[in-house]
Amino acid sequence: MAELYLPMLITCLLAGAMVGSLVFAGQLLGPHVENPAKGESFECGNPSTGSAWGRFSVKFYMTAILFIVFDIEVVFMYPWAVVFRRLGWFGFGEMMTFVAILGVGLLYVWRKGALEWD
Amino acid sequence: MILLIIISLVKALIAVHIVLIFAGVLGWIERKGSALIQDRIGANRASIFGFAGAGLINTMAADPLKFLTKEDIIPDGVDRLLHTLAPCVNLFPVLVAFCAVPFGDVLHLPGGVDVSLQAIPLGVGVLFVLAMASIGVYGVVLGGWASNNRFSLLGGIRGSAQMISYELAMGLSIVVMVMTFGSLDLQEIVRAQGHLIGGWLPGWGILYQPVAFIVFLIAGIAESKRVPFDLPEGESELVSGYFTEYSGIKYLMFFMTDFAEVATIAALITTFFFGGWQVPYLTPDGFVFPGGASLHINHYVIVLMQFGAYLLKVLFWSWFQIMLRWTLPRLRYDQLMWFGWKRMLPVALVNMVITAALILALQGAP
């Protein structure tokens, strides 16, 4: 068990150390000169007009919901894709039923206009 | 156990350095390539005593030193913790995902030690790479949200919607490759491409799945947020998109992520569709040509040749993506979403169904 995941742990630690040391070295080596104009958020030279943390288009929310539905479909396909030769035509029929149900779902959101971006 | 740790550490060091060097070299290729296309000279200043060293000095030394010694500005009103975390969350998964890609066959060291040349030898390497690609979305969203800047926020949410939309088509095209080769192990997938079709044609994935290749290439470029899909950082609309408020080394980290993603997508294209480290007609004993001629080669030379072939293929597909950037115009956001959901997703789904039916019909269900 340990032999299986140890290389992954070592690689993650190495990559993490590299990323962390970059940020740390930047803090250490760079100059730090305070200036009120420097702290303003960039809005093409205009004075900043308040916080950006407001509302944004609900379309992005809709896309995320649709993504979750279809991504879970893809996740279910992976185990099937590995063993589908052994499952044969029966497994193929089962998966096609699953894909057809989600295909109807895709058709529905398509016709409803949820995929339109105006 | 100690030996395993040492071997893993050496392999991880090699793999992480490959991707970091690729990030640097590709940065230089992008500048020089754009200069070539736009009829300029480009990137010709950094040199040591007049020796530019094919851009290596430029990118390996000059860029990091310049960025490291610049001030790392954290503007007022940002979420300080997330602002620092975002470039790390962006860069880390790309580095790790690249390490999961095999860069050579098994190396037989003296003393009976066999080393599989893959920094993260996992049985489910495909899932691991996909998971890391998904984590990359967080870096974009955090960077956009933490900056408290309207351009950044818009770039961040644009980027997240784009990346998750194209992830579907990408996942489906990889499902097809898993079905073709019957394994989730990247090393096994590369090995399965070692045979010859009809005795002379290398059995690379693209010959079996040309549609999946095109879907994967387009989705991969959209995942790495490059032209023609660079809406999240469109300079003419959003200044720099989700990293507008970054400077110094953190800006360089976003920049490195960009090129590391290009290299990772190129490495995945190579692994799935162009035979990974496979050299045509090269077997573990040496060259065996279709005519019957053969040439015996030392084991270490073979491993080096396979490593070189892998690097060359990755470099070619990285170069291809960079040339694409300076050739195509940017899409509009509604076109981007239209293409991802109404073209890529159905094509990938239909391709999956046809592949499954074909494989079962040709091989006969048990």
Explained architecture:
The complex is a heterodimer of chains A (118) and B (366). In chain A, 70% of the residues lie in helices and 0% in strands. Chain A has helices at 2-29, 58-112. By secondary structure, chain B is mainly alpha-helical. At the A-B interface, helix 1 and helix 2 of A face helix 1, helix 3, helix 4, helix 5 and helix 10 of B.
**Helix residue percentage of chain A:** over 70%
Task: Give the beta-strand count of chain A.
Answer: 0
Number of helices of chain A: 2
Specify which chain pair forms the largest interface.
A-B, 65 and 88 residues
> Which regions of chain B have little confidence, pLDDT < 50, spanning 5+ residues?
none
Overall average residue pLDDT of chain A: 83
Which class of secondary structure composition applies to the elements of chain B?
mainly alpha
Summarize the structure in short.
The complex is a heterodimer of chains A (118) and B (366). By secondary structure, chain A is an all-alpha fold.
